[in-house]
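Support reply, case 0932

Customer input (verbatim):
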Amino acid sequence: MVKVLLADDDFTMVALLKTLLGMEGYQVATLLDKTGDILDNIRREKPDVLLIDIYLGDHNGMDVVRQIRETLDMKDLKIIMVSGIDMTEECLAAGANAFLFKPYMPEELFDLLHS
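Our regenerated output:
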């Protein structure tokens, strides 16, 4: 079973994605209610895929992605970045595997998860 970790500060979006992904057979964890270092939380969750928003309240998603790519035990993690602003080039340059422009259709996400 593929484990997806959702890193987004929008409670409604996280709840919706958790339901949709769960219905498709994915194991889903979230960082919404976690405290402490975001990299430690990702390491603890051991996801196969990280779905991360660029804007995370106290954190910048692109900075998190850059840190992941520099961390040996997480550098191969599949990362999909999302935002309501088209920042495809910037996200890919930061190390994301893919970018989704909000709002997106669930099929777009599932296509990326299957690729």
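We compared this against your earlier run and they match. Two observations from our side: Residues 29 and 72 are 22 Å apart (CA to CA). The longest helix spans residues 11-23. Please reopen the case if you see a mismatch on your end.
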